[in-house]
Amino acid sequence: MLTTGVSDIDEQASHIVTIKCQGCGAEVVINTESQLQARCHWCRQTLSQQTQIPNGAVPDAVLPFHLTHAQAVEQVRKFANKRRLFALKKFKQEFTPENVVGVYMPYLLVDGNAHADIAGFGEIKTRQYQRGSDNNKTTYYDADVYQVTRSFDFTVDDLTIESSSARANQNTKQNTNNVINTILPFDTKNAVRYDANYMGDFTSERRDLNVEEVMPVAHSQMLSIARQKATDSTRYDRGLRWESEALELKGTRWVAVLLPVWLYSYYEKKSDGSAFLHYIAVNGRTGETMGSIPVSVPKLLLVALTIGTVLEGIAIAIVANF
Ligand SMILES: [Zn+2]
Predict the structure, then answer these.
(1) Which of 27, 59, 132, 150 has the highest count of CB atoms within 10 angstroms of its CB?
(2) DSSP-assigned letters across all residues of 52-94
(3) b/e code 36-56 from CB counts within 10 Å (16+ = b)
């Protein structure tokens, strides 16, 4: 069953507009009632109403921010401070954690009811023994091999799936999109019915992926949940090898939700003229923080070399003790 928001477009919310950023191409959703001079949450370019594009579908639900701006600034500062040693000088000079902005990121949540059939082979050790002379011993294992099949029903609850194609497309040469997924999970159970008033000063990102488009991702995530459940229920101490697996989705329920993220972004312009988008993301509920900062390669090399030398020194010391 699809809930209405997943397919409908709300014509009423006329003060909610979507603008294509001319700096980086992001599709940014803003509330014109509270933001006259909005900036792109990725590249900080001022957004121009001239490049307005049609709104995406209205979300069903929103998880309101819990962390304040001040708390987010503190999280970003702590994250960067821990990595100061390797950070690019320019990044340190321009570091302004107060620029962190609140963004609602579009996700699809899915509840699913599925049936899994998984089959393979498992081994249980029956004996372990050694053969050979004193200085040339080999250890042998005897094991029984069993054919294992598991057939079961299971449910998943609030599986969280990316619904902006720009972020689902993870080109690690140009950006670090995958960082957002590392600050999951969110307490999605506390999401409330969407209301444009939650937008306030926050921006959002246009959802442009529909249920059919994210279905393959949902299917493969559910399959790996099924595989895990099947593995957990066995006692094969010598390992388990699944060889065939099938998943039948009996029913799904989808909810389009906005999740709160504090974002600090930094554009690194490389010497070859290319640009790399770095950012530090803070979960707007839990404070979980992850990110990337531009590093100075010579400094990293120097540290790697130093560690390498120390390890070599230890290895030599061990050899010398024999
Ligand atoms: Zn931008």
Answers:
(1) 59
(2) EE---PPPSEE----S-HHHHHHHHHHHHHHTGGGB-HHHHHH
(3) eebbbbbbeeebeeeeeeebb
Ligand 1 centroid – CA 63 distance (Å): 24
What distance in angstroms lies between residue 42's CA and the mean position of ligand 1's atoms?
Answer: 5
Q: Map out the domains of the chain as residue ranges.
A: 4-321
Supply the pTM of this predicted model. 0.77
Kindly report, residue by residue over 22-36, the tens digit of the pLDDT.
888 889 999 888 777
Which residues have their alpha-adjacent CB atom under 5 A from ion ligand 1? 21, 23-24, 26, 40, 42-43, 45
Distance CA 273, CA 294 (A): 15
- Separation between Cα atoms, residue 221 and residue 218, nearest integer Å: 5
Residue count of the chain, please give it: 322
Give the contacts of 230 (CB within 8 A, at least 6 positions apart): 116, 118, 150, 152, 242
Parallel/antiparallel/unpaired status of strands 192-193 and 61-62:
antiparallel
Q: How confident is the model at residue 118 (pLDDT cuts 50, 70, 90)?
A: very high
Question: From the CA of 245, how far away is ligand 1's center (Å)?
Answer: 42
* Phi, psi for 294 (deg, rounded to 5): -65, 130
Task: Give the pLDDT confidence of 261-271 residue by residue, as tens digits.
Answer: 999 988 888 77
For residue 322, the CA-to-ligand 1 centroid distance in Å is: 61
Say which DSSP state 273 is in: S
Residue 130: HSE in the Cβ half-sphere, 13 Å Cα cutoff? 7
- If residue 229 lies in a helix (H) or strand (E), which one and from where to where? helix 211-232
Number of Cβ within 10 Å of residue 282's Cβ equals 27
141 CA distance to ligand 1 middle (Å): 60
